[in-house]
Amino acid sequence: MRIYAACLLFCFYCSHLLADPLVATPEPNKADVIDRFAQLALECVHKEYPNIVKHRMNSDADVKTPKQLYPAFYGCFDWHSSVHGHWLLTRIASQHPNSAHYQEIINSLSQSFTQANIEGELAYFNRENTGTSFERPYGLAWFLQLTTELREWDNPQAKKWLTILLPLENKIVANISDWLPKLTFPIRVGEHSQTAFAFGLMLDWSLTANNQAFNDLLKNNITRLYSDDRNCPLAYEPSGQDFLSPCIAEADLMRRVLSKTLYPNWLSEFLPTIPSNVDGTWLRVATVVDKSDGKLAHLDGLNLSRAWMLEGIASALNDQDPRKNAIMNAAKAHKQAGINSVVHDMHYMGSHWLGSFATYLETQRGLP
Q: Rounded distance, CA 113 to CA 103, Å?
C-alpha cells in the first residue's frame, strides 16, 4: 500500500512539473550584455594567476613569473587571452563610451600600455633564439586587432597608446612576413594554430593600417594555400575541443579575398552541402558538458566564432542567393547558444577568454 501511495505521489509530482510552463528568463538588454563582457575582461587582464606560460628556458636564469616575462600581457591565463582581453576593453570603450565600466576600462588600459611595459614585451620577442614562432599565428593576429581598434578609435589617448604599441606591432608584422612564404601548407585545425582565422584578422588590420605590402603578401599566400580547395569535410566537425571551425573559417576568409562575383561559385564547390532553403540545422550547435575543463569549454567559443563567420559568409552573398537564409538561421542558433554561455555563470576556464569572442560577434567587428 505504501509503495502504491508513493507511486501516486511521484506521478502527481511529475504531472505537475509537466503541466507548469517554464518561467522564461528575461532577455538582458544590449547595454547589460556589453557591460558583462567588459566585466569579464576587467576581472582578468591584471590577474596573474592561474597562468599557462609558453616560454623557452635555456638556463635557471630564465625562470620568471608571467608578469616578469610579459609586463603588459601577463593576465587572463595566457598571453593571447590577455591580448584579446585588452582588445575587448578597447572595443567596448570605443564603441560604447556610455558603458558603466568606461572609466575603469581607461584606467586598466593605462596601467597596461606604458612605455616600460611595451619595451618589456618587445624585449621578449627579441630574445636570442626566440625566432618568429611565439604566439604564431593566433596571438599575433589578435595583437593586430588591438592596434586596429586603437587606429579607428577617435580618442587622443588611444593615439598615444598606439604610438607606444607601434614598435611591437612592427616586430609582429616582420615576424609574420618572414614566416608566411615558408608556410608550405595551411594549418587546418580548430584551435590556436589555425591559419584561416588568423589570416582574416591580419587582412582586416592591413586595410586599416593601409599596409599594402602586407596586404599583398597575405592575399598572395592565401590564394596559394586555399583557392583550389573543394568539398570541405564539414561532417567531420567539430572535434571535441575546437573553438574554431576549419571549414567555416576558411569560407569566411575567402570572402575577404575573392570578388562578390567569384565568391558564390567558390563557396558552392567548397561547401556544397549548404541547403538552399531556410533550414538552419545543417550546422549543429555544440554543447559543453564540463565548463571547468578548459579544452571542453572551447566548444562555447566554437558557437560564437561560427556565428560571426556565418554572418561574414552571408554578407558576401546577394539577397537572391538561395543559401543565405539557411546560413543566417544557422548563425542565429549559434549566436544564441554562444551569448547565453557568456552572459550566465561560467568557470574561469571560459570566462578568461570567451568575452572577447562574444564581443567580436555582438559588435560585428569582422563584417564589411
A: 15
CA pseudo-torsion sign 288, 292, 298, 304 = positive
| Cell digits of residue 222 | 592565401
All cell numbers assigned to 309: 563567420
Please tell me whether residue 287 adopts helix, strand or coil conformation: coil
**Per 3-state DSSP, what percentage of the chain is helix, strand, and coil (rounded to 5)?**
60, 0, 40
Q: What are the two backbone dihedrals, phi and then psi, of residue 233, each rounded to the nearest 5 degrees?
A: -75, 70
Cell numbers representing residue 363 in the block: 559588435
- Among 306, 354, 313, 355, which Cα is nearest to 331's? 306
Give the integer Cα–Cα distance in Å for 202 and 198. 6
Contact 91, 359 (CB under 8 A): yes
User: Cα separations (Å) of 175 from 150, 231, 253, 299, 309?
Assistant: 21, 32, 21, 30, 26
The helix or strand, by DSSP H or E, that contains position 9, with its residue range, turns out to be helix 2-19
Q: At what angle do helices 138-152 and 195-208 cross, to 10 degrees?
A: 20
At 135, the pLDDT band (50, 70, 90 cuts) reads: very high
Mean pLDDT for 329-357 is 95
Count of residues in the chain: 368
Segment 322-342 mean pLDDT? 97
Reference 153, options 196, 100, 96, 108; nearest CA is: 96
Measured in whole angstroms, the distance separating CA 95 from the mean position of its chain's CA atoms is 18
What are the tens digits of pLDDT across the range 64-79? 999 999 999 999 999 9
Which residue, among 356, 363, 351, 358, has the nearest Cα to 337 in the 3D structure?
A: 358
Q: What is the spatial distance between Cα 37 and Cα 339, in angstroms, rounded to a whole number?
A: 10
* pLDDT value at residue 212: 98
Q: Which of 8-22, 98-112, 155-169, 341-355 has the lowest mean pLDDT?
A: 8-22
CA distances from 209 to 106, 166, 185 (A): 23, 11, 27
